Amino acid sequence: MGKYFAFAFCLLIFNCSAQQVVPVNKNATKEAKELLQYLYRIKDKKTLYGMHNIIGGMSTSTDSIYKITGSYPAIWGGDFGFADEKHDIDNIKYRPLLVPEIEKQYARGSIIVLSYHQANPFLGEPTPFEGGIISKLTDAQWKELTTPGTALYKKWCAQMDIIAVYFKQLQAAKIPVIFRPYHEMNGGWFWWGHRKGADGFKALWNQLYNYYTIHHQLNNILWAWTPDKPLEDVADYYPNTNTVDILGCDIYPQKNKAIVYPQEWFDRMLKLANGKPLALTEHSVLPNQEILKNQPWAWMMSWGKMVFDQNSREKIRDFSDFKQVIMLNKLPIKIREHKKK
C-alpha cells in the first residue's frame, strides 16, 4: 500500500476565529478546503513565502533558498512548460517528472502552486515564448476560441485535456493545488491578455473553470486570479467572485520609479478581494518588514532566479527571519497518513 501525506491545519492557529470558509467549487476535496481555511486564518497577519521553479529545473530555485537560509520556502511553485529543446528550461518533455516532484515536495510539507503558460491554441505546442506565449489572436479567433464546438475551441480543449491528466494524478494522491492560469491578463503581452468585457478574458476564465470543475471533475484546485500590477482598470478583468478563491498580483520594479510596492495597489486589490485571501503572486525584489506590515499578503512567490539577481544573500536570509514570514519550518502542520486502497 502506498502512503500519502496531507495537510491538517490546527484550528486555533494564530489565535484566529473559527470562521468556516469553502472553496468556490462546492465539490472541493477535503484537502483543498483545509488549505483555503488555513489561508483565511493567516491573512492580514502572516505571509507564506514561496518560490517558483522552472520545469526544466524542478526544484533548483527552492533548493537555492534552502542553501542560503537553512529553511525551505513554505510554497513550492511550478509550471507545465510550453517549449521544446530550443528553450529547454520550459521543455514539455519534462512534464512526466512534474507529479513525482510535487509528491516529494508535498510529503515534505510544502503548499503547491502551479502556473501555466499555455501555448496559443491557434499555434499549438511546443511553442517559443516570443511569438508563441507572447502572441495575439484576432477578434474573430477569440470569438471562435470561446464558442463551444468550433475548431479552435476543440484545439483549446485538447490542450487543457493534456494538463488535466496531471491534475487528476494529483487529485488521486490527495494533493490540493493553487492554480493560477492566464496570469497578467491586464497586460497586453500574452495572447490571453488585454481583453475587457464579458466576451473577453472573463469568458475564457469561466470557460476553463467550468471545463475543469464540471467536465473533468477536478476538485483539488483552488482558483487564483492573478493580474499584473493592479492599475486603475484591473477590476475590468475580474471574472466572477463565484469562480475565484484567491486574488493576487504580479509586481516587479518599474523603470525610473523608486517605489516597488505602492500602497494604493495593495489597497485596490484588498477592496476587490472583498475578504478573500490576497497574494503577491510574482515578484523579484523582496519587500521589507514595514511593507509587509502595511501590505500583509497571505502568500508571496519569488520568480526563480530573479530573486537571486535582485537581492543579496544577506537580504534573503534576513527576509526569511522576519516575524511575519512563514517558511516551511514555521508552517504549522500535523502530518496524517493516508492509505491508498
Question: How are the SSEs placed, and which strands pair?
Answer:
Layout: E1 3-6, H1 30-42, E2 47-52, H2 60-69, E3 75-79, H3 98-108, E4 111-116, H4 139-145, H5 151-172, E5 177-181, H6 201-215, E6 221-225, E7 246-251, H7 263-273, E8 278-283, H8 289-294, E9 299-303, H9 306-310, H10 313-320, E10 325-326, E11 336-339
Parallel strand pairs: 2-3, 2-9, 2-10, 3-4, 4-5, 5-6, 6-7, 7-8, 8-9
Antiparallel strand pairs: 1-11
Please characterize this protein's 3D structure.
This protein has helices spanning 30-42, 60-69, 98-108, 139-145, 151-172, 201-215, 263-273, 289-294, 306-310, 313-320; strands spanning 3-6, 47-52, 75-79, 111-116, 177-181, 221-225, 246-251, 278-283, 299-303, 325-326, 336-339. The chain has ten helices and eleven strands. The strands form two sheets. The chain has an eight-stranded parallel β-barrel with strand order 2-3-4-5-6-7-8-9, surrounded by four helices. A two-stranded antiparallel ribbon has the order 1-11. The termini are close together. With 341 residues, the protein is of the alpha/beta class. Residues 1-18 and 334-341 have low confidence and may be disordered. The protein has a single domain, classed as Alpha-Beta Barrel (TIM Barrel), CATH 3.20.20.80.
